[in-house]
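A common beginner's mistake is to predict each chain separately and then try to dock the pieces by hand. The better habit, illustrated here, is to supply every component at once so that their relative placement is modeled jointly.
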Amino acid sequence: MDARRAENGLRQSIEELPGSLIRHVAEPNMHREGLLKLWFGEPDVPTPQFIKDAATAALDDNHVFYAQNRGVPLLRQTISTYASALHGSDIGIDRITISGSGMNAIMMVSEALMSAGDNMVAVGPIWPNCKETVRIMDAEARQVSLRLGDDGRWQLDMDELFDACDDRTRAIFVNSPGNPTGWVMPRADQQALLDECRRRGIWLIADEVYIRFAYETDLPLGRAPSFLDIAKADDRLIVINSFSKSWSMTGWRLGWITHPVDCGEAFEKLVEYNIANPTTFVQYAGVVAIRDGEDFVTETVERYRRNRDIVVQRLGAMKRVTLSRPEGAFYAFFAVDGMTDSVAFAQKLIDDVGVGLAPGRAFSEDGEGWMRLCFAADTATVSAAMDRLDPVLG
Ligand SMILES: Cc1ncc(COP(=O)(O)O)c(C=O)c1O
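With all components supplied together, the output reads:
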């Protein structure tokens, strides 16, 4: 039998894909009454009404047919205008391709870049999907891990990152603000990484789906630093973005990719062969989300900032906890003294104190001993979770 085929005849690399450990913990416990569920990474409030109304209006206008592979021109133009204002440079429509979610964008970028035997180096701990797409392509996903400094802030050893690359490295993957870490890559590190990628001809993939969730920034619109602020239009840079987090649209499945102009045709084909086009009427709702959604984004981020402050203060004071200070995204990632099985510990927290968290092992081997708490919830729930966790962790 072909070594790369599994018993059932499917490709071995597909058989080897791990299931989600977050779901492994969450699914058997979802029905539990009174459980504070902070395990998944999604906003707590539904999509705002004005975005839903835009979708309804688009349906009434019969935007129900196939559309352009790379997205309806109005949405691409709206994103081009938004991104140009956000980054203070001209990001033309020819650099924008709409995708059917951030996840779909990540998969297409892997398809565009990775061949069997290539490798990608990711900064971790990281949301597992970013690396598994590479394995689907029979390529290798490597990881260089952030370390927590004595000041509670994550640090990336840039030399370690560069040393992990070799002549089969096609891309470095950076997710900042980071899931699960809350790490925000400082501008100086972004510049050093971009310079190194230019020098070695390595692609830089930046997952910036949490860019609007930054709590310690002085950039306009309260956003995190982006590679798009410093890159040139023809740099080998691909930036992934999504409507899911900023506009509370996780179920709508809409995102976008920013890429060099000469990659447009390749992404056009990849969209064609994956999904043909992102859902047409959803794209019209996306236009309204971006155009009219700034107040919503600002209010949401302010709420999460309050939640983050509560978590930093209360969880940070618990004796068994070593907490990384989340500078962005909406997660607290913390180590628990004496805990060595995060999946079992997640179940114990559910059973004993009624709090549902994600096990650190879901985000790579070196996430073992850690837990992730999503604070994109209402403030009362976050405070109640702190009250419940205190007897176990305090
Ligand atoms: C780092 C990161 N990238 C991408 C995504 C994908 O978001 P979506 O597929 O909902 O756009 C997520 C979702 O949790 C994420 O955490």
